[in-house]
Design brief:
The chain has no helices and eleven strands. By secondary structure, the chain is mostly beta strands. Strand 4 and strand 5 form a beta hairpin.
């Protein structure tokens, strides 16, 4: 029903910035929510940030003040601006879309922060 395509991952030095993008297509309904999870090797997947179709946002404590989630409803696209990156941010980042009690996941994009 919903397909998600992620982009923007890569290698960056500590203190640098990256912007991730996720475009949704298919049967999109409102209201909905989109967001980002991440998973480091050998660790649990954790919530990073979410944003509703009305623009309400939530962040994990570990990224507050450094990351900003936004969306363009006309393009069905969610973004994650990551500033002041730390090696601890290294993970595969997954986009998620939630609507009508169903979750849809992207395939993930690798973010690597070097020290």
């Amino acid at each position: 029903q919903v397909q998600l395509v992620e982009s923007g991952g890569g290698l960056v030095q500590a203190g640098g910035s990256l912007r991730l993008s996720c475009a949704a297509s298919g049967s999109i309904f409102s209201p909905n929510a989109m967001g980002w999870y991440r998973q480091a090797p050998g660790e649990q997947r954790e919530l990073v940030a979410t944003i509703s179709s009305s623009g309400s946002t939530n962040y994990a404590d570990s990224v507050k003040g450094r990351f900003t989630v936004s969306r363009d409803n006309a393009k069905n696209t969610v973004y994650l601006r990551m500033n002041s990156l730390k090696p601890e941010d290294t993970a595969v980042y997954y986009c998620v879309h939630y609507q009508r009690r169903s979750y849809y996941w992207g395939q993930g994009t690798q973010v690597t922060v070097s020290s």
